[in-house]
Amino acid sequence: xxxxxxxxxxxxxxxxxxxxxxxxxxxxxxxxxxxxxxxxxxxxxxxxxxxxxxxxxxxxxxxxxxxxxxxxxxxxxxxxxxxxxxxxxxxxxxxxxxxxxxxxxxxxxxxxxxxxxxxxxxxxxxxxxxxxxxxxxxxxxxxxxxxxxxxxxxxxxxxxxxxxxxxxxxxxxxxxxxxxxxxxxxxxxxxxxxxxxxxxxxxxxxxxxxxxxxxxxxxxxxxxxxxxxxxxxxxxxxxxxxxxxxxxxxxxxxxxxxxxxxxxxxxxxxxxxxxxxxxxxxxxxxxxxxxxxxxxxxxxxxxxxxxxxxxxxxxxxxxxxxxxxxxxxxxxxxxxxxxxxxxxxxxxxxxxxxxxxxxxxxxxxxxxxxxxxxxxxxxxxxxxxxxxxxxxxxxxxxxxxxxxxxxxxxxxxxxxxxxxxxxxx
Amino acid sequence: xxxxxxxxxxxxxxxxxxxxxxxxxxxxxxxxxxxxxxxxxxxxxxxxxxxxxxxxxxxxxxxxxxxxxxxxxxxxxxxxxxxxxxxxxxxxxxxxxxxxxxxxxxxxxxxxxxxxxxxxxxxxxxxxxxxxxxxxxxxxxxxxxxxxxxxxxxxxxxxxxxxxxxxxxxxxxxxxxxx
Lengths: 425, 179
Prior knowledge:
The structure holds 2 protein chains of 2 kinds. Chain A is an alpha/beta fold. Chain A has helices spanning 17-28, 56-65, 94-110, 118-123, 169-179, 195-202, 213-217, 227-241, 269-276, 294-297, 309-321, 352-361, 366-373, 377-389, 403-406, 413-424, and strands at 8-13, 35-37, 46-50, 72-76, 85-89, 161-162, 220-221, 245-248, 254-257, 262-265, 288-291, 306-308, 325-326, 335-337, 393-395. Chain A has 2 domains: 8-110, Rossmann fold (3-Layer(aba) Sandwich), CATH 3.40.50.2300; 143-395, no CATH class. By secondary structure, chain B is an alpha/beta fold. Chain B has 6 helices and 8 strands; from the N terminus they run βαββββαβααβαβα. At the A-B interface, helix 1, helix 5, helix 12, helix 15 and helix 16 of A face helix 5, strand 8 and helix 6 of B.
């Protein structure tokens, strides 16, 4: 129960469980300390109706049956005029919602709130309290943080890092939560690449014969020579400076949101895949970083172009690797996976789950993993390249035992394999 | 014949019923009822006994999928359910006030079972609330000295639930996927 008398207790009508949950979170977020969903509708001070979800008459009838005589906020896409009620247009603007609550709070304190009754509204048409929410100028979203940070040239070759412009980092979390469900790319279930489609999807590196043991040992790539290295560094700068940053590369617009761990990218997958494979020798001086205003760029108008930073780094690493491993990883030392990647939202390369399971349980040489799982080295190298980008790979001189030895004694090993086989289909 | 089970647990509204529905080969038995206590602020109906589904294997073996009641007052059933269990799927609702507290509660409650088998954690409703992030969960899990799979999960998506189960099985024995 909320005992804070300054916080308006709200009852919701005309909303399903999901919409109610969204509303509760909204009140807990941008409207925190102003209003909260009442534990019990009977003790609420204010009702909020979503007039678009159900028939308004039904919702009003429900209120009537509950004998509610409380002030009312009506949410709707279309303007609705109901006596005594405050209309807030959808999509809800925080400043308008706060203005409505402020007005209601003021009226509650003064005892000025018109007693709202369906019957009165329909039959008598009493004059209503006018509230022009547009006039409310105080916006919790308008606080901009002045950024005057300027970073020096980055070690991976950015020619200039200019972070002098204003960057609305304060807004970031609120705006992102508000739009979260529209970020379809972020929450899309993983694509599972089979061995058959892998080479077509990620491409090949000419001149490496992965059946030749000597060539396998040298099948590495320098992260810093590719777009991956620049992206990795830009993410690092954004995190350190806590600024929304744009990479300018004479290519596609890419914006990094450090606080929400997101990247907004204009490019399609096929374009990103091609760009990831290019050696950046001639591009280095063309790539700069700037503080970015996502509103000016139009990020929030194309919500499907938001990715988690992890998912994008992972994908770019796979397209850069093309079956090779990062050159800074010593192939003669065991690798260890510090945590499971979030596989439901990442591009899944062949045997990635199994490789992860082995390397989470115990450190291993990469080539030992290929032998134990009886898979091609490319699959292990690709996985290590991607996991390394997320910081999940560590190396030590010490080698662990066999994965089987670490496996918990199972009463039904064959059974587990059969369940696994069914789930893989 | 032994009865092999996979247990789905987590707080009210985390998606246990839906996850079992997504993966079961037969229409699951649902035991939801109208909520009449604190759960009603989160969910109109809640599981008061348990959910039950089945995965049929090719050799005729059946894997029983049990969802624990989310309400803590039914926790006496958890021990009964987990006897003979192969592993634990813990679903956490990211929109709840304190998902880490939920995680602690369920990891503690099932600690013996997890020690004998394994656990995989699915975080639901991340499309409504993206924080805590998956990385935050891993950071929090360091306190427990375990490294389970933690995936973002949409319980309605069979693929998501399937991947979480696969990770659970591989956590028990990493070599089952060989060949």
